[in-house]
Amino acid sequence: MPQPRRDTTAARPGTALHRTVRAAVAAQTLALFFQAGTAGALLVSPLGAQLHDIGSRVMYGASMLYVVAAIVAWRPGGGSPGPVLYASGLLVLASVQVALGVAHLPAYHVPLGIVMVVLSTLDLARVLTAPGGPLPRPGAARTT
Protein backbone atom coordinates (compact mmCIF):
# COMPACT_ATOMS: atom_id res chain seq x y z
CA MET A 1 0.00 0.00 0.00
CA PRO A 2 1.55 3.33 -1.02
CA GLN A 3 2.23 5.90 1.65
CA PRO A 4 0.31 9.18 1.43
CA ARG A 5 2.44 11.92 -0.03
CA ARG A 6 3.46 14.62 2.47
CA ASP A 7 3.76 18.19 1.28
CA THR A 8 7.22 19.35 2.34
CA THR A 9 7.53 22.31 -0.03
CA ALA A 10 7.64 24.83 2.83
CA ALA A 11 10.96 23.43 4.05
CA ARG A 12 12.57 23.25 0.61
CA PRO A 13 14.72 26.04 -0.79
CA GLY A 14 12.99 28.08 -3.46
CA THR A 15 9.62 28.18 -1.74
CA ALA A 16 7.83 31.41 -0.91
CA LEU A 17 9.02 31.25 2.71
CA HIS A 18 12.62 30.73 1.65
CA ARG A 19 12.36 33.62 -0.82
CA THR A 20 10.94 35.80 1.95
CA VAL A 21 13.93 35.05 4.18
CA ARG A 22 16.24 35.83 1.25
CA ALA A 23 14.47 39.14 0.67
CA ALA A 24 14.65 40.05 4.36
CA VAL A 25 18.40 39.34 4.52
CA ALA A 26 18.92 41.31 1.30
CA ALA A 27 16.97 44.28 2.70
CA GLN A 28 19.00 44.21 5.90
CA THR A 29 22.28 44.00 3.99
CA LEU A 30 21.33 46.84 1.65
CA ALA A 31 20.30 48.99 4.62
CA LEU A 32 23.65 48.31 6.29
CA PHE A 33 25.54 49.28 3.13
CA PHE A 34 23.45 52.46 2.96
CA GLN A 35 24.43 53.17 6.56
CA ALA A 36 28.09 52.70 5.71
CA GLY A 37 27.71 55.16 2.84
CA THR A 38 25.95 57.79 4.90
CA ALA A 39 28.37 57.42 7.81
CA GLY A 40 30.96 59.50 6.01
CA ALA A 41 28.36 61.95 4.76
CA LEU A 42 27.13 62.68 8.28
CA LEU A 43 30.55 64.07 9.16
CA VAL A 44 30.37 66.78 6.50
CA SER A 45 26.71 67.60 5.98
CA PRO A 46 23.51 68.02 7.99
CA LEU A 47 21.73 66.11 5.21
CA GLY A 48 24.18 63.24 5.71
CA ALA A 49 23.31 63.11 9.39
CA GLN A 50 19.61 63.08 8.57
CA LEU A 51 20.07 60.29 5.99
CA HIS A 52 22.11 58.27 8.48
CA ASP A 53 19.39 58.71 11.11
CA ILE A 54 16.63 57.62 8.70
CA GLY A 55 18.78 54.74 7.49
CA SER A 56 19.27 53.52 11.05
CA ARG A 57 15.51 53.20 11.46
CA VAL A 58 15.19 51.35 8.15
CA MET A 59 18.07 49.03 9.08
CA TYR A 60 16.52 48.27 12.47
CA GLY A 61 13.15 47.58 10.85
CA ALA A 62 14.80 45.32 8.27
CA SER A 63 16.51 43.42 11.09
CA MET A 64 13.16 42.90 12.83
CA LEU A 65 11.58 41.80 9.54
CA TYR A 66 14.36 39.24 9.12
CA VAL A 67 13.64 37.81 12.59
CA VAL A 68 9.92 37.50 11.81
CA ALA A 69 10.57 35.94 8.38
CA ALA A 70 13.04 33.45 9.86
CA ILE A 71 10.61 32.43 12.61
CA VAL A 72 7.75 31.96 10.14
CA ALA A 73 9.94 29.93 7.80
CA TRP A 74 11.14 27.80 10.71
CA ARG A 75 8.08 27.03 12.85
CA PRO A 76 5.03 26.81 10.63
CA GLY A 77 7.12 26.41 7.48
CA GLY A 78 9.19 23.49 8.71
CA GLY A 79 12.51 25.09 7.78
CA SER A 80 15.79 25.15 9.63
CA PRO A 81 16.12 27.06 12.94
CA GLY A 82 19.54 28.37 11.84
CA PRO A 83 18.27 31.60 10.24
CA VAL A 84 16.42 32.45 13.48
CA LEU A 85 19.74 32.40 15.32
CA TYR A 86 21.46 34.53 12.66
CA ALA A 87 18.56 36.99 12.56
CA SER A 88 18.34 37.25 16.34
CA GLY A 89 22.08 37.79 16.64
CA LEU A 90 22.02 40.56 14.07
CA LEU A 91 19.04 42.17 15.80
CA VAL A 92 20.96 42.17 19.09
CA LEU A 93 23.95 43.73 17.33
CA ALA A 94 21.63 46.31 15.73
CA SER A 95 20.26 47.20 19.16
CA VAL A 96 23.76 47.68 20.55
CA GLN A 97 24.68 49.65 17.43
CA VAL A 98 21.74 52.03 17.87
CA ALA A 99 22.60 52.54 21.54
CA LEU A 100 26.24 53.29 20.68
CA GLY A 101 25.17 55.74 17.99
CA VAL A 102 22.76 57.56 20.28
CA ALA A 103 25.48 57.73 22.94
CA HIS A 104 27.88 59.23 20.34
CA LEU A 105 30.56 56.58 20.87
CA PRO A 106 32.10 56.30 17.38
CA ALA A 107 35.10 54.35 18.68
CA TYR A 108 32.71 51.41 19.21
CA HIS A 109 29.91 52.34 16.80
CA VAL A 110 32.06 52.32 13.65
CA PRO A 111 33.85 48.97 14.19
CA LEU A 112 30.58 47.30 15.17
CA GLY A 113 29.01 48.70 12.00
CA ILE A 114 31.78 47.13 9.94
CA VAL A 115 31.27 43.79 11.70
CA MET A 116 27.53 43.98 11.01
CA VAL A 117 28.06 44.71 7.29
CA VAL A 118 30.41 41.72 7.01
CA LEU A 119 28.13 39.36 8.96
CA SER A 120 25.02 40.38 7.03
CA THR A 121 26.85 40.02 3.70
CA LEU A 122 28.06 36.55 4.68
CA ASP A 123 24.52 35.64 5.76
CA LEU A 124 23.15 36.89 2.44
CA ALA A 125 25.70 34.79 0.58
CA ARG A 126 24.67 31.80 2.69
CA VAL A 127 20.97 32.10 1.89
CA LEU A 128 21.59 32.83 -1.79
CA THR A 129 23.74 29.73 -2.18
CA ALA A 130 21.54 27.39 -0.15
CA PRO A 131 21.74 23.79 -1.38
CA GLY A 132 19.07 22.79 -3.83
CA GLY A 133 18.63 26.23 -5.35
CA PRO A 134 15.29 27.35 -6.68
CA LEU A 135 12.60 24.81 -7.44
CA PRO A 136 11.55 24.27 -11.05
CA ARG A 137 8.29 25.89 -12.05
CA PRO A 138 5.26 23.59 -12.14
CA GLY A 139 4.89 22.08 -15.58
CA ALA A 140 8.50 22.79 -16.56
CA ALA A 141 10.18 20.04 -18.55
CA ARG A 142 12.84 18.03 -16.72
CA THR A 143 16.22 17.71 -18.36
CA THR A 144 17.58 14.92 -16.18
What does this structure look like?
It is a single chain. The chain is 69% helix and 0% strand. By secondary structure, it is mostly helical. Mean pLDDT is 83; it is low at 5-11 and 132-138.
Radius of gyration: 19 Å
Order of helices and strands: HHHH
Beta strand %: under 5%
What characteristic shape results from the CA principal axes?
elongated
The helix tally amounts to 4
Q: Estimate the helix proportion, in percent.
A: 55-70%
Arithmetic mean of pLDDT? 83
Catalogue the unreliable spans: 5-11, 132-138
The beta-strand count equals 0
Separation, N- and C-terminal Cα atoms: 28 Å
Structural class: mainly alpha
Strands, helices and their partners?
Blueprint: H1 16-42, H2 46-74, H3 82-102, H4 106-128
